[in-house]
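Objective 1.3, modelling of assemblies. Example input:
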Amino acid sequence: MKITILGCYAATPRTLTNPTSQVLEICNRIFLIDCAEGTQVQLRKNKIRFSQINHVFISHLHGDHFYGLVGLISTFMLLNRQTDLHIHGPKGIKEIILLQLKYSNSYTGYNLFFHELTSTESEIIFEDDKVIVRTIPLKHRIYTNGFLFEEKPKERKLNVEAVEKYSIDKCYYQNIKNGKDIILDNGKTISNKELTFDPLPPKKYAYCSDTMYNEEMIPLINEVDALYHEATFLETETEKANKTMHSTALEAATIAKLAKAKQLILGHYSTRYENIEMFKTEAEEVFSNILLADDGKIIELE
Amino acid sequence: MKITILGCYAATPRTLTNPTSQVLEICNRIFLIDCAEGTQVQLRKNKIRFSQINHVFISHLHGDHFYGLVGLISTFMLLNRQTDLHIHGPKGIKEIILLQLKYSNSYTGYNLFFHELTSTESEIIFEDDKVIVRTIPLKHRIYTNGFLFEEKPKERKLNVEAVEKYSIDKCYYQNIKNGKDIILDNGKTISNKELTFDPLPPKKYAYCSDTMYNEEMIPLINEVDALYHEATFLETETEKANKTMHSTALEAATIAKLAKAKQLILGHYSTRYENIEMFKTEAEEVFSNILLADDGKIIELE
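Predicted structure (tokens):
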């Protein structure tokens, strides 16, 4: 699992920093999470192939999380995209995009599917054979969802030495990988444990931006491998954080601690701060494994 | 008069080039012409003070000319702008912007005035004591206007030596600058010509993008000091130019020649071309004073 931070600053695009967007590579799927103005240039800079993006997840309809989407959709059009594109986001996203396509009299040559979200309960919004994506209801000034990206349990790893020792025919290998025991021709049962190794545990990544401090998300993000949690402010601006329904670095770290996250990634920094290291220092008061997101940073979840 | 090119490439924002936007400084007024994605970052890079922009002119509703507008409006909001902002653009621009502000539940703390255009005849869309702006109806795939920015005739320059020679009281100076003759106490009339010099001739700048070759614009842009005319293609792509209702460099130059423009500025290059010098070479076949627009270029009209 690999996260490429395209932008992780709040509010407005600036000369050297970009508002929110990131790319998640999970089981060879490429998901785009949020899509602020400038995202398509950031995709180019980070050498993400446009054609690989089939699913876009939009957390909420504040501009610093989706103003780049209509441009990206148009660029896909100009690049003669043929594959379907799925947009998962709050109700309204379809109206906004289609209105602009209507006035420009341009329609996509590919299928554009909108999956509009309205539920305030967590729900599964994407599922295939390898990956499952759920919403994480967040508390912000407008309807907002975080997203939990989860690998499905992987098949067990074949113990080649063991299967060869028992001369098991290859046609049984898939059954063995699926966890089945094997009955030999002599009637003896060989337990699956003897024939396989444990697979790598499935990984989970939770993306939570924008949100105020909200313990209700904790059961949903329990023991995630990485939690991206917004930290727009430092504790010195607590009042501002409360008023704008954002979090401080300390609050983000408290959520990570309560959720027993393995790693916390901080982002969505207010542009008022010159030095983002202070976010790490503050968060380390309650949680130790902290990474500061920064534009262009690649985070591999081992 | 000074033009700052923020972006002058067609279609999509790329790592090193930006779609259309430019700033015109005319008689201390700052006008923003078109506003593609990335414009606010380009404004920052080119050190244009956001607060000085009170009028935005949008040629048409293709994304590469206006997708940056909603973000700019939002940024003005975040910067606590108080002054009125006027948007001049095709019908539809208001609906597009207000829909997005509605869903983000954010409203501007400043007055936002939309002046929607629908006429296919040239009309005056802005006028104050120093400047007049008219539309230039263009021929493109959707409703499109170019804009003619014109200084109003300036007051005559006082010939200080002459007024002192006749001991004319200072209270008459403004009348003299306005072109009036003066009757001295002895009854003798002094003609204005003797008391003043000709002012600098008022300047005219015509912005014409996007458009196919269209001689109908010529009377409107006659003898402009500078004509910015789109040249999306070279003559080798004439067929593509016709199909997409764009112009070639040669066609732009032909319009400049027929309109007796003093200078032609080429822009809106298709991103298929690696080297924009070819646009100049082609246009020079019929017109000599050619400037290639490029992102960040500043053009002073002397």
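The first helix of chain A runs from residue 39 to 45.
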